[in-house]
Amino acid sequence: MTDTPSPTDGDAIIDTPFADALNERYLAYALSTIMARSLPDVRDGLKPVHRRLLYAMRLMKLDPDKGFKKCARVVGDVIGKYHPHGDQAVYDAMVRLAQDFAVRYPLVDGQGNFGNVDGDNAAAMRYTEARLTRAAIRLMEGLDENAVDFRVTYDGEEEEPAVLPAAFPNLLANGASGIAVGMATSIPPHNAAELIDACQVLIKARRGVRGPVAHEELLALVPGPDFPTGGLIVEPRASIAEAYATGRGGFRLRARWHTEDLGRGQYHIVVTEIPYSVGKSKLIERIADLIHERKLPILADVRDESTDEVRVVLEPKSRSVDATVLMESLFKLCDLEIRYSLNLNVIDLDGRPRVLSLGQALEAFLDHRLDVLKRRTDHRLDKIARRLEILDGYLVAYLNLDEVIRIIREEDEPKAELMRAFSLTDTQAEAILNMRLRALRKLEEIEIRKEHDALSAEQAELQALMADPGRQWRRLASDLDAVRADFGPDSPLGARRTGFAEADARAAEIPLEAMVEREPVTIVCSRRGWIRALAGHLDADKDLTFKEGDEERFRFHAHTTDYILAFTSAGRMHTILADKLPGGRGHGEPLRLIVELDGDEDLVALLRYEQGHDLLLASSEGRGFRVEAEKCLAQTKTGRHLMNLRDGVRATHCLVVEDGQDTVAVIGRNRKLLVFELDEVPYMTRGRGVILQKYRDATLSDLTLLKAAEGLSWPMGGNSGRVRTETDLTPWRGRRGAVGKIPPQGFPRSNRFDG
């Protein structure tokens, strides 16, 4: 009989559903990623790799006042003893802690090439050296005083701290970012002095000196992030308040800039601070691409004049370019403005991932500091108790010095005899036996009594501290004041770097035409649809060349910042920026290359867009409507579909309603003329329109707008140049949709108002 292997056997095969096995293993991987790699601890704000780096450097005695050591040696210790991962990943984490443009308060003092704001990588670890900074020392104060728990390392040969004592509010001061399985964290850096001020207010509330701290009061002390690269936060205050209240949100951060006068009305723009985490070289490359691709035609050049400080110079194309318009355009087109997200997702005090508010994160930091204070105090009390025990034994020995000497000289078991004769403990007896002869002098006795008195006083003070929560909070407040002295506004790292600006004053939409220089042009389009924009406003009698068999159809004046409206026989309106039209060399380009036209779609009207004007549209079946010009603008090459046309019906007219025009005159191919009030034509944004003139077996021939007081005019026959005006239009007046009557004698046989 074959024995079935038990599940505990090393080579046992366990039959389990694949889905269950996959879920179990993926869950374990996800938890490992969340807890041991991606999310920082709310207490010290560090991930395990950063904590192990600092601890290893501390054991190597790389204090701020000591010499540097090779980074390769540090990385070797970390991956060998504490963090069994790739050396490059560990070195990259170390490099980031040393970059003053990546972290607000560097924890590593680097010597050598540790990268730069351009985005260049650091030198190899064999070339660079490092030591700890004062902020890192603050994080590890009390490690030798049982301030935190230790755990065994991955191989069981060493111990490492589970968390650092963190006298410095590192989580919010330096921020953190990371992506785990199913969750992520993104915490921007903050100003340490502001965080400590907020903590002091929370401590007063804990002591009962004042009432609970409102969220608005915390925001007054911590108004927003303080990025190491400076810049300006333009997020509305209400949005910032909501982000800090919920732990989720974002901040709009833009570069800081100013103009420098070059004389004679010329200037250039200097960017002195760029947004956090943006590489300067890639930013300049992006701006250069915008210039090359003509996406920002009002910018002539960009150059980098940076030294130790950022100085990016932007040259406008002309002195007439508005600096604010130029910068607003850049903010929209490149990373001179970014949005930095806030997701305050951390490992909370109970060891679980949780999204905290600003107040909750500060409260968790204070709870951790209170626990550290109690543990350090207990540790100190234990040391004092052990030392007082030994000092008490010394004092007994001095009071009975002759007898002690006799026992040591004559007794076979002097330790046991000392304990019996003077009621000493084992520790006291051992200490007396280990005393040197030099310590028996009178002066040493005086020193021991002084030490005993001092330790007794310290013991009483610490016992009072442990018994009184109010004293504990006062001690924490005093400790934070000492930290603030190192990182406050008067320190090299303390002054706030990131400013604030009103978001609504800078968030106005910049129109596309504001990004183009305003220059006069003449728009010309031929009957075959070849369009061009010639420089300057040309006279109407200026002769132009066209392709053989082609001739001029439209000509009007505009500027490069104007929109050109092209209405087609399919009832679609296309919008073209005049600056995008081909220049005056040659015959231009076919309109079909600029906008998308169907095979049989023809151009009906080409005109300059004027804000506030109305357009009158009409089709061959005698229908039409009015539409506001603003509602005709289209953002795509396919245009905006305005008229719904039946099969065989084509759009025929698009007229601009000029000021004072109040009457419509329409004539059909049946040679019937109708005149009616413009107000009878309704406004629409899309559709077939209403009946303008009724036909039985005819279609619309022509349409025009006029002022009733001036009458209807048309050219006389031949080339005489004479114009006839009919002021009394009563015979042809009627309601919209009527048939009309035969036009006046002498009206053109072409049935067109222009002859």
TrEMBL record:
How does the protein associate with the membrane? Peripheral membrane protein
DNA-binding recorded as keyword = yes
Q: Which HAMAP family match?
A: ParC_type1
Tell me the lineage of the source organism.
Answer: Bacteria, Pseudomonadati, Pseudomonadota, Alphaproteobacteria, Rhodothalassiales
Using the UniProt record, give the first listed, main subcellular location. membrane
Q: Which residue positions are annotated as catalytic?
A: Y127 (o-(5'-phospho-dna)-tyrosine intermediate)
* Site residues, Interaction with DNA: K47, H83, H85
One GO cellular component term noted in the UniProt record for this chain:
chromosome
The protein's name: DNA topoisomerase 4 subunit A
Task: Give the record's family classification.
Answer: Belongs to the type II topoisomerase GyrA/ParC subunit family. ParC type 1 subfamily.
- Name the site position(s) for Transition state stabilizer: R126
Cellular compartment(s)? Cell membrane
Provide the function of this protein: Topoisomerase IV is essential for chromosome segregation. It relaxes supercoiled DNA. Performs the decatenation events required during the replication of a circular DNA molecule.
Organism the protein comes from: Rhodothalassium salexigens DSM 2132
Which residues belong to any copy of the Topo IIA-type catalytic domain? Answer: 39-510
Q: Which UniProt keywords apply?
A: Cell membrane, DNA-binding, Isomerase, Membrane, Topoisomerase
Q: Which gene encodes it?
A: parC
Region of interest: Disordered: 723-755
